[in-house]
Here is the input.
Amino acid sequence: MFEPGYTPLPLSRLSQAIRPPIIVDLMSRALANPDVLSLAAGFTDNEVLPRVMIRDIVAELTREGLPEEPLQYGQNRGREGLRALSCRALAGHPGEQASGLDPEKVFITNGSQQALYLAMQALCDPGDIVLVEEPSYFVCLELLKGLRLRPVGIPCDARGGILTEGLRERLRALDAAGERSRVKAIYLVSYFCNPSSHSLGAVAKAAVAGVLSEEGFCLPVIEDAAYRDLYFEAPHPAPSILSMEAFAAFPKLYLGTYTKPFATGLKVGFGYCTHPVWLEKMLCMKGHQDFGTSHFNQAIIERVLAQGFYAEHLAGVRAHYAAKATMLNEVLEKGGLQQSGWRWERPAGGLVIWLRGPAGMHLGMESDFCARCIAAGVLYVPGDLCFAEGVPKNCARLAFGSLPPDKLRVAAERFCAVAAEFSA
Ligand SMILES: Cc1ncc(COP(=O)(O)O)c(C=O)c1O
Here is the structure.
């Protein structure tokens, strides 16, 4: 601990805007108290970590005389082999225009989180606006606020699908308020979204591009595909923004990651950027931050992809999470949530279930409901954190990634019991 009475330190305006990330708080609460079962933290399941595979690859990578010595620094932009393999993996998704994808546009990052930060830093000044879905990835909303940016919500339906006419109205309202020039990007979590688990279909995605073009907002588009590999039965058929004609004129950044689908602890992800100046600036900033993502971890992922282990591993992981999603869904159904007005959909991929409680119910961090859940030994993410304006308050995100099945069941039962108390 620090001694009391240390000298006051005048902090920058930027750091004064930065609050402790809620995600870190939720993760440490989950780690600190084993009796509280966390349906909040975004961990994956230890059960499906690729331990043996990584142990064997580490043995290979620590042999002497390897080209591109993995125990040395690598390139700022990332290993050439990993960039090429990431490009190939991206091209393998349904609907992608494989021949148009170029490894020179790929850069490797410390997870997609770092790419998001670099993207926003390169594009935005304090006070600028980023359009986000309602609900959106709450850690990104915090990141934006930490950079003193303003997330502005795009109206969505109850399932998380973008309402294109709502988007048009929002753009017109921003224009009428004299804010057009402050809108710097649109951020879409379009595959098995965290938190709504909704995926944006090709027609809906093209409609977003259509409205942006018609309203004269040719904005940088950031597509966060963190959960694209984590589908349960079938990959989502929509191509990414990179391969859609409707987005041809837009500067684009696509984000992928090897954390959630493979090993979060390696913390390796990538960006694919179609705009040379934007890409160059992000690389400069990355150079200033770390001059390259852990070369050793990149080399591990490169081997995994090159030797075909990734696809093999994913098959098992998908089945594992599909079973957990089904089980959580069943416990919620049996727990009587529907009868008391709660609504949700069984996800087709990803790691979360998005619940909408009865209208008027307050599930926020400061609510009695949240306090009661903690007392009953279960944590969830209050859904208001996922909305730019912090409303509505009646939603919750339940993650089924980390808890083993028996504990997942108990956690969900505890949640249902609290919900029952509040609907009595
Ligand atoms: C939607 C979304 N994007 C990005 C990230 C960042 O993930 P990582 O930095 O581990 O790739 C997460 C992590 O939870 C996420 O849910």
